[in-house]
Amino acid sequence: MSAFSRLRLDGVSRRFGGQAALTDLDLTIEAGEFIALLGPSGCGKSTALNCLAGLLPLTAGSIWQDERRIDTLPPERRGFGMVFQSYALFPHLTVRANIAFGLRMRRLPKEETRRRTEEAVRLVRLEDHVDKLPGQLSGGQQQRVAIARAVVFEPSLVLMDEPLSNLDAKLRLEMRTEIRRLHQSLGLTTIYVTHDQEEALSLADRLVVLREGRVQQVGSPRELHTRPANWHVADFMGYRNLWPGRVEQVDGLRATVGSSGHRLVGEAVGDLRAGVDAVVAVRPEDVRVDGSGEALDALPATIEVVEYQGRELAAEARTDTGLLLHLRTEQRIAPGDQVKLAVDPLRLLVYPADAAQPTD
Ligand code: ATP
């Protein structure tokens, strides 16, 4: 398949009966990029990937490889590599034959098929397993075969749908590094679907966050981590503290919010004015314990629950007025401790509220 310099999705939409699964997806991907499609279950990630692969027809919109329209082509004529959660290997074929399958289908000369297959086997480090059947391999090894099979014919685009979710935690981390390494050495344009924000942040050059079939934000890992576009994205990116409140004052980028009897000062993100409902978002690691003296508005609270998480503790604390805070700290704290908590105003984001409500 010929290479391209740009892939463009223009208003891509898909409905199932009366229900919209994906609405008006606009996205331009440069050759060589690693893009993660991220969002909660049912947000339309797999639908988007299947539309790209040609496994699902669009109900509206178009997909372009440079000037060539491709959404009307059948999957095999798009020439994309695909990796699924379920591996989808041929159980009766050896590792070598599974990997060579796509090349045989394309009727490449024998010698080239052999050379490329060996190369792909080396790439995913399966040299010692080429004559085994998939049933004789571990989950991680099977997924390596699936990846080799998807990249062996040097596709212009590789699509991966939750490829690591069947693996245990340790293997998942190893395979994550492996996928990153592969992407760096081959420079393949990759679109990767996951609901795991950490996985997406660590792998992708850019992330696309979906919610209810619509794009919420497209950005670099840093942008998504530090400045989510709305409180739903914040929620998804690990801002465990989401407090409803009312805006008291806005002064440039600084917003003051009343929430559960506390006055909180933070950065206004989006359209805010005095009197409107707001959602305050803070990451647990940005709540400081014992802010006495340093912060104007230190919050007196009682520690309720503490969980060990390696070097850090994850804890929940509640203020006298009932505000629940999730926090992470290296300080030694225990349930029942009275503490003062503070949040740096630069790490406290204030968003306009909408119809949906945050939950603890
Ligand atoms: P998950 O992470 O759970 O796989 P997802 O983000 O990939 O979720 P999709 O599988 O794309 O979500 O589904 C988006 C919406 O479309 C969901 O509401 C789902 O129920 C619906 N949907 C998906 N496929 C079909 C189908 N074949 N028929 C009817 N509805 C479907």
From TrEMBL:
Protein name: Carbohydrate ABC transporter ATP-binding protein (CUT1 family)
Keywords of the record: ATP-binding, Nucleotide-binding, Transport
PROSITE patterns given in the database record: ABC_TRANSPORTER_1, ABC_TRANSPORTER_2
Chain ranges of the ABC transporter domain: 7-237
Annotated Pfam families: ABC_tran, TOBE_2
GO molecular function, a single term: ABC-type transporter activity
Species of the source: Micromonospora taraxaci
ATP-binding in keyword set: yes
One term under GO cellular component: ATP-binding cassette (ABC) transporter complex
Taxonomy of the source species: Bacteria, Bacillati, Actinomycetota, Actinomycetes, Micromonosporales
Top-level lineage group: Bacteria
